[in-house]
Amino acid sequence: MPLANAMTAELEQEGKSTLRMLGRVPMDKLAWTPHPKSLTLGRLAWHLVVMPSLAVGLINEGRFDIANAGPPEMPENPEFINTFRRNLDAVSALIGSMDDDALKAPFVISRNGDLVNQTRKIIFIRQILMNHTYHHRGQLSVYLRMLDVPLPAIYGTSADEVV
Questions:
Q1: Which pLDDT score is estimated for 144?
Q2: pLDDT confidence band for 163 (50 / 70 / 90)
Q3: Domain covering 3-146, topology
Q4: Counting CB atoms within 10 angstroms of each CB, which of 5, 77, 132, 144 has the fewest?
């Protein structure tokens, strides 16, 4: 089985969980934040939504300058669900089109043009796209819990699960 098949299968499965979580974001609470140094609920959700589309550009470029990292500004009326679906479809299609050699191609991480690390595209996809998404999805679940929003099941069941 090509590496891309395993990655796209995981993206699809985890994407379903992310969609369920994004579907719980209360639109009247987008400016809420648990701490002054934290992202707002809306910005955190938007970061999750756009991560796959940002990854498409970075995978194609084969490089990422971390000086440019950070969540993009959220539009005034964000469409979390449909935008995430489109972005996930785009990154899944790109990864699905890559053979093992393409996934093992070099990927450069720099800061202001200075080399920080040279890795492989597959490592970038795993760490920056996939693991990073799961991390922020976990943060989103904490935000929602603090707002007393019922949480969907991610792995297993949830005491709040709404059928």
A1: 97
A2: very low
A3: Four Helix Bundle (Hemerythrin (Met), subunit A) (1.20.120)
A4: 77
